Amino acid sequence: MSVEPVDPIARSLELVVERAGDPAPQIYARLFAEFPETEARFCRDVSGAIRAEMLTMVFDCLMDPGGPYQANLVRAERVNHDGFGTPNEVFDRFFWIVLETCRELLGVDWTPTFEAAWTARIEGVEYATQ
Ligand code: HEM
pTM of the entire structure? Predict the structure, then answer.
């Protein structure tokens, strides 16, 4: 019987949810601490649905970076975001803010395998969508 290898990104996210529930509030708190000017831009997002959609796209990209739509979608969002005042370097920082939050939430359970997988995927997505 063969055992499916578990994707380290998916495994780390499962652990985050098990330990801390939805990480979105901590991720956005970290974003707003680093870039306070971005908070007001979410004023339309009363229910949190836009923030959830944005985070879902980031998770999808990291779990399936070779998916047929991922790179095009991120390229399109890059251009949209630049249009409403989020330049490329800030846009790119969001992936790292997600990593840093998940690492903090997992504490000692964050492994070198998780770190290596996240770093490689983020660099890959950013490289493919410049
Ligand atoms: C620090 C970086 C980022 C900031 C400040 C930011 C900001 C925002 C804001 C303010 C909105 C809501 C716009 C509205 O009212 O319609 C939004 C929506 C969205 N963002 Fe981001 N964003 C960032 C990074 C990203 C990244 C890295 C992705 C995906 C890879 C992404 C994907 C999306 C998507 C899918 C939406 C919802 C659909 C849309 O309005 O285009 N964002 N973002």
Answer: 0.94
Choose among 54, 46, 71: nearest CA to 124: 71
Ligand 1 pocket (Cβ < 6 Å) reads: 31, 35, 38, 41-42, 44, 50, 53-54, 57-58, 61, 74, 77, 80-81, 86, 90-91, 93-95
CA-nearest residue, atom 41 of ligand 1 = 77
Residue 130's pLDDT band (cuts 50, 70, 90): confident
42 CA to centre of ligand 1 in angstroms: 9
* pLDDT tens digits, 3-21: 667 899 999 999 999 999 9
Q: Which domain holds residue 56?
A: 9-36+46-128
Classify residue 53: in a domain, yes or no: yes
Q: Are 81 and 91 in contact (CB under 8 A)?
A: yes
